[in-house]
Write a structure and sequence with these properties.
By secondary structure, the chain is α+β, with helices and mostly antiparallel strands. The protein has a single domain, classed as Glutamine Phosphoribosylpyrophosphate, subunit 1, domain 1. It contains nine helices and twelve strands. The chain has helices at 22-44, 49-61, 106-116, 124-133, 147-154, 171-176, 236-242, 244-255, 259-273, and strands at residues 5-13, 82-88, 94-100, 121-123, 183-188, 194-200, 221-223, 229-234, 278-283, 289-293, 297-304, 309-314. The strands form two sheets. An eight-stranded mixed beta sheet has the order 4-3-2-6-5-1-11-12. Strands 7-8-9-10 form a four-stranded antiparallel beta sheet, with helices on one face. Helix 2 packs antiparallel against helix 3 (106-116). The longest helix has 23 residues, at 22-44. The protein starts with a strand and ends with a strand. The relative contact order is 0.20. The structure holds aspartic acid. The site of aspartic acid has 18 residues, from strand 8.
């Protein structure tokens, strides 16, 4: 039997053990395990890497703990505008949506764009029109309400700033304490194909239709069987400037680096130069997995058919 593997993340940032209660830490660990298993099960049943990363991401989107799908942060106007993308490595097929509202699982819409439209990237009302046509599940604003995110937003809404995710503190701390709750997955299936998916609510108090790196193919998500599949989390603006996910692929292709070496250069050298805090997970078609971040922590987990298994939050 050919081997297969999956890795997931639930965001990176200033995640310190002293700031997270044992109960919350356990809840995050359970959520990561659940998502990991949802993806792994598909690979184990000879499913595709694409289906596995989508299943893992759906599980994280459905969990209110993460800033994606149900637990998405509030915009300046008190709404939820979500971004997601998927890519598969053997066809270079890709699909993405940005600024979508009331979509239960934005990653499923991104996959739908990839498989059932002539396009790669849809946004806002047009994406919703497409979602309705394709029978994608929608929900009212109530579904996306969480007290924790609401309080984060309340602390910021009269301010011009915007913040990354997870912080419990007030506005100044929110700005200083960079925490990202985007989710994503990468996988290599038993056929040697790889895929990546990323989904996010973006940044608390964002305005003007701000879109980060998560739905941008090459920035937050990328997959190519010749090199790697990558899903990023972090401060979206510099990740876009760095074309972070594709940069890992380029360094493997043009410099002959391994996945680990390429991710190391991008996360710990190039992104640092751009003051881009965050991290990424990656897999190659030989089932090598790497999970790297330049912040204090990253919610992450991985599992291989060889038995290797790992869940972690802190460094
Ligand atoms: N990258 C996301 C964004 O900038 C945020 C995150 O990773 O949490 O929208």
């Amino acid at each position: 039997m050919s081997s297969f593997s999956i890795a997931i993340h639930g965001g990176a940032g200033t995640l310190l053990k002293e700031d997270i209660s044992p109960e919350l830490e356990q809840a995050y660990t359970n959520a990561l395990n659940e998502a990991l298993e949802a993806g792994y099960k598909i690979l184990d049943q000879k499913g595709t890497a694409l289906d596995a990363v989508v299943a893992a991401t759906v599980s994280l989107e459905n969990n209110i703990l993460f800033n994606a799908g149900r637990g998405s942060v509030f915009t300046k106007k008190g709404l939820h505008e979500m971004d997601a993308s998927v890519m598969e490595g053997h066809t270079l097929g890709a699909g993405a949506v940005a600024g979508v509202k009331n979509i239960v699982n934005p990653v499923l819409l991104a996959k739908e764009v990839m498989l059932h439209s002539d396009h790669v990237f849809l946004c806002a009302e047009g994406a919703t029109e497409f979602a309705l046509k394709r029978g994608i599940a929608m929900a009212g604003d109530d579904y996306f309400f969480s007290e924790f995110r609401y309080n984060q937003w309340k602390a910021m809404r009269d301010n011009d700033g915007y913040a990354l995710d997870h912080s419990q503190q007030g506005v100044e701390q929110l700005m200083k304490d960079k925490k990202f709750g985007t989710v994503g997955a990468v996988a290599c299936d038993a056929f040697g194909n790889i895929a990546a998916a990323t989904s996010t609510g973006g940044m608390t108090n964002k305005k003007y239709g701000r879109i980060g790196d998560s739905p941008v193919i090459g920035a937050g998500t990328y997959a190519n069987n010749q090199t790697c599949a990558i899903s990023c989390t972090g401060h979206g603006e510099p990740f876009i400037k760095a074309v972070a996910a594709y940069d890992v692929s380029c360094r493997m292709q043009y410099k002959g680096l391994t996945l680990q070496e390429a991710m190391n250069e991008v996360v710990h050298e190039n992104l640092i130069k751009l003051e881009a805090e965050g991290g990424m997970i990656g897999v190659d078609a030989q089932n090598n997995i790497s999970m790297q971040f330049n912040s204090a922590g990253m919610y992450r987990a991985m599992k291989k058919s060889t038995g290797e298994y790992f869940t972690a939050i802190y460094k």
